[in-house]
Amino acid sequence: MFESFMSAIAALNTNVLWGVPMVVLMLGTGVFLLVVIRGVVFTRFNVVMRYTTKTLFQRRDPSEAGEGTISPFQAVCTALAATLGTGNIVGVALAVATGGPGSIFWLWLSALAGMVIKFCEVTLSVAYRTRNERDEIVGGPMYYISRGLGIKWLAALFATFGFLASFGIGASVQANSLAVSVNETFGIPLPAIGAVVALLAGLVLIGGIKRISQITELLVPFAAIFYLVCAAVVLVFNAAEIPAAIAMIFRDAFTGTAATGGFLGATVMYACRVGMSRGVFTHEAGMGSAPIAHASADTDHPARQGLWGTFEVFFDSIVMCTITGLVIITSGLWCADPMMSEGAMSSAAFG
């Protein structure tokens, strides 16, 4: 009975939640919102990059500050902390290992739609934020659904499902990926790793959004720079394989990937589904989690924070995921051993 129930859940997850309907909804929503905002995310992409990168290297103009608890940069670091390391390392390894190199192309397409969606949801989150009974600034999809659309039952439904999802895609996947990688590399028992992770997470969470943002503001840039440097070193050694890897990404996206070595092969539709789903997992556009963090930013205009949402997806999915994809493909490990876990594959590719 239980096995039948779990099989039904797995089929629903594979065929519906992460199947063709998800692909259609993701791309359809991206195109619809792109028309609504008149393509500003792409037509003014230079403004997006100039504003966000400028803030990284010079003091922010005081006139851009507004009502909020944390800085815009702290908000984007808090949002990125949920995906950097898991989504764009382990997630990409899983995409390539199961969907082939062509899945990276579909991940890019998901990211382009995600840049538009994230801009809109972050902008709405700031526009409809409010203060709770403890005088804290709060926001997110449940607030702009309730206050903007006036559909309170839908807002409550989102909050409920969002709460439940936080235990799965929001926490357990990251903790499991970390534990498995550390266990396979250093042999530390899984329960011990889990206990340390739980303790550290608890110490950070006790301090609320301010402490979370302060920690992520320090750790996320360091982790990102360290990862990019390590990846660059690996790609220098594998430079001769990069042109072939890029060609495989574009070719296999429309022809599928034939079985080779330990790789069982993948059709175009499967590569599309895997790439799109891994894209959603890494940039989380449309999931509603990142806007909750962005709602606390001290910005003078909702759309200004929306620019950070676009930058977040661009950096996380276009930059970081592409780097990871090239490292995995040029290493040849994606088709070497079908029994190798995604975490072990990522570690070995950098080893």
Supply the key terms.
mainly alpha; 75% helix; 1% strand
Task: Characterise the protein shown here.
The protein is mostly helical. It has one domain. It is built from 16 helices and 2 strands. It has a two-stranded antiparallel ribbon with strand order 1-2. Strand 1 and strand 2 (137-138) form a beta hairpin. Helix 6 (86-99) runs antiparallel to helix 13 and helix 15 crosses helix 16. 41% of the residues are buried. The model has no long low-confidence stretch (mean pLDDT 83). It comes from Candidatus Olsenella pullistercoris. Belongs to the alanine or glycine:cation symporter (AGCS) (TC 2.A.25) family.
Radius of gyration: 20 Å
The mean pLDDT is 83
Structural class of the helices, strands and pairings? mainly alpha
Task: State which percent range the strand residues make up.
Answer: under 5%
List segments where confidence is low: pLDDT < 50 over at least 5 consecutive residues: none
- What is the N-to-C order of secondary-structure elements (H for helix, E for strand)? HHHHHHHEEHHHHHHHHH
In the sheet with the most strands, the strands line up as 1-2
Q: Characterize the overall form.
A: globular
**Regarding quaternary structure, how should these chains be classified?**
single chain
Question: How many strand elements?
Answer: 2
User: CA-to-CA gap between the ends?
Assistant: 44 Å
Tally the helices: what do you get? 16
Helix content: over 70%
Largest sheet, if any?
2 strands, antiparallel
Q: What's the number of domains?
A: 1
Transmembrane segments: 20-41, 75-98, 104-128, 149-174, 186-206, 218-240, 313-336
Family: Belongs to the alanine or glycine:cation symporter (AGCS) (TC 2.A.25) family.
Protein name: Amino acid carrier protein
Organism: Candidatus Olsenella pullistercoris
